[in-house]
UniProtKB/TrEMBL annotation:
The gene is coaE. It is found in: Cytoplasm. This is Dephospho-CoA kinase. GO terms for cellular component: cytoplasm. Keywords: ATP-binding, Coenzyme A biosynthesis, Cytoplasm, Kinase, Nucleotide-binding, Transferase. Coiled coil: none annotated. It catalyses: 3'-dephospho-CoA + ATP = ADP + CoA + H(+). Its EC number is 2.7.1.24. ATP binds at G12, S13, G14, K15, S16, T17. The keyword Iron-sulfur does not apply. Pfam families: CoaE. GO terms for molecular function: ATP binding; dephospho-CoA kinase activity. One of its GO terms (biological process) is coenzyme A biosynthetic process.
Length: 197
């Protein structure tokens, strides 16, 4: 079975960019955010739990998830955000475990914005944090997502654990400042993970 490695980093840190480099090396990547959306729309158990917690209106007559309804329901209600997270995170955990065990690779990566925040490092062998200065992250995010305001970006940053704390908790740190090369840092970690298996 592959070694399970998480890759995280605050908004705009460059974790998707780093994950692409691992993909080029042939490493299978699981995107927790994409998969969470898919599971909310398709996983029978999770759908039943969401309906039980928020009502049958969570899905329309064609069994399609009503994202607008969910967004409206949890909006600015921290208890409801906790409830939905307490349903979605275990579903992603189960799905990731099943996916990982079917991969033929020395290690696999789980890409997620929140790892330490949700305690999912407990079911991972290692975690990589992609680290960039706050100013750089904000300007990269605003360049990539012109629809977001600086205020919205700061709001997301405030929901995430500070970068310095993630660096302390992580087994590997990839520094993604403009003067640091990513590929050599990725290759070093890749060699180490391969030699472990
Ligand atoms: P999110 O959490 O929002 O998904 P992320 O951590 O996955 O963000 P990326 O999407 O990889 O971050 O990077 C944010 C933006 O910054 C992207 O447009 C990306 O192309 C750019 N970027 C990332 N790293 C670098 C770099 N070293 N040099 C220049 N641009 C970069």
């Amino acid at each position: 079975s592959p070694i399970l490695v998480g890759i995280t980093g605050g908004i705009g840190s460059g974790k998707s960019t780093v994950a692409k480099i691992f993909t080029i090396l042939g490493i299978p990547i699981y995107s927790a955010d994409d998969r969470a959306k898919w599971l909310m729309a398709n996983d029978t158990l999770l759908k039943a739990q969401i309906k039980e917690a928020f009502g049958a209106e969570s899905y329309d007559s064609d069994e399609k998830l009503d994202r607008g309804f969910i967004a409206k329901t949890v909006f600015s209600d921290p208890e409801k955000v906790k409830t939905i997270n307490s349903l979605v995170h275990p579903a992603v955990g189960r799905d990731f475990a099943a996916w990982a065990s079917s991969q033929n690779s020395p290690y696999v990566l789980k890409e997620a914005a929140l790892i330490f925040e949700t305690g999912s490092e407990k079911s991972l062998d290692h975690v990589i944090n992609v680290s960039s200065p706050l100013k750089v992250r904000i300007s990269r995010t605003l360049m990539r997502d012109p629809f977001r305001s600086e205020e919205q970006v700061n709001q997301i940053i405030n929901q995430q654990l500070p970068d310095e704390q993630k660096n302390e908790l992580a087994d590997f740190v990839i520094k993604n400042t403009d003067n640091k090369l990513l590929i050599p840092q990725v290759l070093k970690i890749h060699q180490q993970l391969i030699s472990e298996n």
